[in-house]
Amino acid sequence: MNVYDGQRIASMLRGRGYTQTDDYTDADIIILNTCAVRAKATDKVFSALGRIRTEKKPDAIMGIVGCVARESGADAFKRVPELNFVLGPQSYHKLPEILDNPDIKLLNIDLGGLEKFDEMPQMDASPAVAYIPIQEGCNHCCTYCIVPYTRGREISRPFDDVVRDTVHAANTGAIEICFLGQNVNGYKYTDDSGKIYRLSDLIDAAAKLDAIKRIRFTSSYPTEMTDDLIDMFRTEPKLLPFLNMPIQSGSPDVLTRMNRPYSLDLYIDIVDKLRVARPDVQISSDFIVGFPGETDSDFEQTLAIAKRIKYINSFSFKYSPRPHTAAALMPNQIPEKTKSERLYKLDELLNEIQREFNESCVGKIMPCLYEGPDKTGRHAVYRTPYMQQCIVATLDPNSPQMANIEITAANKASLRGKII
């Protein structure tokens, strides 16, 4: 979501005559687009601001947008007096106000609705992977999650608006569409005639566009994996055989305290249905270790579900207390040392599962999307249908955007391959 927001902000600034620079010491306007999902992310924002304010040009405009802006509010100005603006994740379309009046201090952290999608101009060009938000906010209110506070309650965008953005992306360079939402598969829009549109309808509309070769969506909530969506994995070949469906914990007791009201049996049943619909489908997940009250037995159940599902790529984190959340006030907070030990053990298992899957891909031919040169500039980076990074030894600056690649080697982190 932040990548999309950043792209829209950059496009709006280009429309006002700005050009982008990676050197913030020479910039006329500096914007930190922020995430508050973990305390570490928030800390990084203010650490960066402390460095930037001493090195930027004296007259440079500086501000923060996104979830840290919403979380910190007016306090951000107290912590960093040099800030010119603090705009929440649904308010960055207010940036022209500060550009037109650079001497004011602009604070806007209202949750609002979908105004930013209407007021921001369309992007002048789309990258190969176009991120298309289809809803904002979340109604699930997990006890550890700050999203309902920073992004608000769940709102689905009008179906026609999403299709318009998808068509525009396809017409301006997109090859892959990634539908976005804090609860993306909870998308539900009812038009004036009473017709209900779901995520499956958006996938179907995107698949009809010739320029679009790949479709995916993130992030999914287990109870929103409806049968019509599962069936799309069977019927729509452009939908990638890859799904991020966070489980967070393998312990029913921990899931209850997290306010994630699904059973392990339901989760496993969904995975089984997906694998029947698309036998080559693979699953990734998110995990939180050290949630308040998590016992050794609870943690062992998390290891057990990871072994059973065999997640090919996962994001695992130590529990991080966030303001405005119920879990931050729960008793039996887990010591940092215990959280670190459990995270290390879980990561070892997840890394081994990922390595095994990567090695199983050697010898296979996969249609892959060109991402760009690697850090050395000597190789091309592609993404497989499972979102693995595949390095191809080529110096060709005109590498094809889509290519069939034979996988020749693998390790935990990436693949190696050759274009055939």
List keywords for this structure.
four-stranded parallel β-sheet; 4 domains; about 425 residues; Rossmann fold; about 35% helix; Transcription Regulator spoIIAA; five-stranded mixed β-barrel; alpha/beta
Written overview of the protein:
35% of the residues lie in helices and 22% in strands. It is built from 14 helices and 19 strands. It has helices spanning 2-15, 39-55, 67-72, 75-79, 95-100, 115-119, 147-150, 159-171, 199-207, 227-235, 252-257, 264-277, 296-309, 336-360, and strands at 29-34, 61-66, 85-87, 106-108, 129-133, 135-136, 155-156, 176-180, 188-190, 196-198, 214-218, 242-244, 282-289, 313-318, 365-373, 380-383, 389-392, 402-410, 415-419. Strands 15-16-17-19-18 form a five-stranded mixed barrel. It has a four-stranded parallel beta sheet with strand order 1-2-3-4, with helices on both faces. A three-stranded parallel beta sheet has the order 5-8-11, with helices on one face. A hairpin with a 4-residue loop joins strand 18 and strand 19. Helix 10 packs parallel to helix 12 (264-277) and helix 13 runs parallel beside helix 14. The longest helix has 25 residues, at 336-360.
Secondary structure elements and pairings:
Elements: H1 2-15, E1 29-34, H2 39-55, E2 61-66, H3 67-72, H4 75-79, E3 85-87, H5 95-100, E4 106-108, H6 115-119, E5 129-133, E6 135-136, H7 147-150, E7 155-156, H8 159-171, E8 176-180, E9 188-190, E10 196-198, H9 199-207, E11 214-218, H10 227-235, E12 242-244, H11 252-257, H12 264-277, E13 282-289, H13 296-309, E14 313-318, H14 336-360, E15 365-373, E16 380-383, E17 389-392, E18 402-410, E19 415-419
Parallel strand pairs: 1-2, 2-3, 3-4, 5-8, 8-11, 12-13, 13-14, 17-19
Antiparallel strand pairs: 6-7, 9-10, 15-16, 15-18, 16-17, 18-19
Helix pairs in contact: 10-12, 13-14
